[in-house]
Design brief:
By secondary structure, this protein is α+β, with helices and mostly antiparallel strands. The protein has 15 helices and 16 strands. It folds into 3 domains: 283 residues, no CATH class; 126 residues, no CATH class; 64 residues, Arc Repressor Mutant, subunit A, CATH 1.10.10. Helices cover 40% and strands 18% of the residues. The protein is elongated, with a radius of gyration of 30 Å. The structure holds zinc ion and manganese (II) ion.
Length: 504
């Protein structure tokens, strides 16, 4: 029998604000000495009063808008009561009845760059978002040997919980959803999205059912997934495990699973437990949250154009391939840098055809030379905005190649120097005497010399060995120290050789 997997995703995203959700302690706690980034509010001392972090609310609303959600205009905070050593108050301030954002969707691209199975066809899928609400993070338990320690530095960091509808149908789709969400929070600049550092944590819940069936199977939850890869591997493993059990007629247990990365298997963390009663009730120490029209408009204006929309635009306006469009939009800073190059490379007089040519050239330069040099300097893609070389300078370089002032090989040398020093390409070309030789008289003399110096190769060419032509072009380029205009050399050499043939 064939089975179908139904997956829903619950993700917690730490918001990258300066201070915590309800106090003035820093929200950036990574690598800080344990229990030094705390105050009476985030330690849950009796009588300490919380104050709402406006920036965190703004970030949450921006994510809600980017996820095409409705935004609750009047909402309030609630206490979610449970006891755990990392939760000093004995409750978490959260939102239950009226999440800040609800009823949205995200479009994800199921294509995977890393597998190399690249297709130009669109593989987009819409995944509905049920809700996104704001709450506070807990402290952290650290287990060493038979002792457990608790660090409250993270206690009270703003946390956005995002819950999907059960629309995900494979491990690859789960991976695609999570990378899209990660890219979205990074585009918005509201979170680092680093799963490895716990800034984004996800818990998939999944069940299998016979294909075509309307009933849902027994649901399991997977925890402790600290990378995108772990999410895909854990789900793929669970699909295999449950399919095998069902095929043998065995029942699936309703459990909470953990992912053992080293062994590549899921392990039972908790057996089925009775549903929690969190005794939610309105938080008496905080006022309700009101979102005005003006505030919402202001936040809407702060949501940038997202990756998929940019991809569509690059393909439509510049004729870029899907692959190039995906690469250039993987990071917002790269997309913006590319767009600046294109803007600088064209003015109102530039024809649409030429704009497309220059945009394609810019796309190639960025994906080859720019990325190569950034990698060699250990820079992340997001560092592109801080490079010495400016988008306008790459635009100049592209035009210098286009009008044949320099050839592409020389341009690569020039670019390396631009990358190091930030100097203008025209200055480098002048200082180093790199301008391309297109003068026909000079090149004709070079070609004549080459023909004379290589009589046997010339004979080979004349007897039909076309590949010798490339060798002769190479000799001519060498004679011009690489500055000869290859197109002109090609034409003149062809003329010289055919002239010899006619004379034979
Ligand atoms: Zn605090
Ligand atoms: Mn939560």
């Amino acid at each position: 029998m064939e089975y179908e997997v139904i997956i829903g995703m619950e993700t917690h995203v730490e918001l990258d604000t300066q201070s915590k959700m309800f106090c003035a302690c820093s929200a950036r706690f990574f690598g800080v000495e344990p229990n030094t980034n705390v105050c009476p509010v985030c330690l849950g001392m009796p009588g300490a009063l919380p104050v709402i972090n406006k920036r965190a609310v703004e970030f949450a609303i921006m994510v809600g808008l980017a996820l095409n959600c409705k935004i609750a205009r009047h909402t309030f905070w609630e206490r979610k009561s449970y006891w755990y050593p990392d939760l000093p108050k004995g409750y978490q301030i959260s939102q239950y009845q009226y999440p800040l954002a609800y009823d949205g969707w995200i479009e994800v691209d199921v294509r995977d760059l890393s597998t190399g199975n690249w297709s130009e066809e669109s593989t987009r899928k819409r995944i509905r978002i049920r809700r996104a609400h704001l709450e506070e993070d807990t402290g952290k338990l650290i287990h060493v040997g038979d002792k457990s320690y608790v660090d409250y530095n993270r206690s009270g960091v703003p946390l956005l919980e995002i819950v999907t509808e059960p629309d995900i149908r494979s491990a690859d789709e789960a991976y695609a959803y999570l990378s899209a969400l990660q890219q979205l929070v990074r585009y918005l600049g509201v979170s680092t999205g680093d799963m490895e550092k716990g800034a984004m944590r996800c818990e998939p819940n999944m069940s299998l059912r016979p294909k075509g069936s309307r009933e849902l199977g027994v649901k399991v939850e997977i925890k402790n997934l600290n990378s995108l890869r772990a999410v895909r591997d854990a789900i793929a493993y669970e699909i295999r495990r449950q399919t095998a059990l069902l095929a043998r007629g065995e029942a699936i247990q309703q459990v909470t699973l953990g992912w053992d990365e080293a062994r590549g298997i899921t392990v039972v963390q908790r057996e089925k437990e009775s549903a929690h009663d969190y005794r939610y009730f309105p938080e008496p120490d905080l006022p309700p949250l009101e979102v005005s029209d003006a505030w919402l408009d202001e936040l809407r204006a702060r949501v940038p154009e997202l990756a998929l929309s940019r991809q569509d635009r690059y393909r439509r306006d510049y004729g870029l391939s899907a692959y190039d469009a995906v690469q250039l939009t993987s990071d917002r800073a790269v997309a913006e840098w590319f767009e600046q190059v294109v803007a600088c490379a064209a003015d109102r007089e530039t024809s649409a055809e030429r704009v497309r040519m220059r945009a394609k050239a810019a796309a190639n330069w960025i994906q080859t030379e720019v990325f190569r040099l950034m990698k060699a300097h250990n820079l992340a893609l997001s560092d592109i905005a801080a490079l010495r070389v400016q988008p306008a300078q790459l635009a100049q370089l592209i035009r210098l190649v286009e009008d044949q002032t320099i050839n592409l090989n020389t341009a690569k040398q020039v670019f390396e120097e631009m990358f190091e020093s930030g100097a203008d390409p025209s200055r480098i070309i002048e200082a180093r005497g790199l301008a391309q030789v297109s003068d026909e008289g000079a090149l004709r003399a070079v070609v004549a010399q080459v023909v004379e110096a290589h009589p046997s190769q010339v004979q080979q060419y004349l007897s039909g060995q076309e590949k010798v032509f490339g060798f002769l072009v190479g000799q001519a380029m060498k004679a011009t120290k690489g500055k000869g205009n290859a197109q002109v050399i090609n034409r003149l050499l062809r003329e010289a050789l055919e002239g010899q043939r006619a004379r034979q």
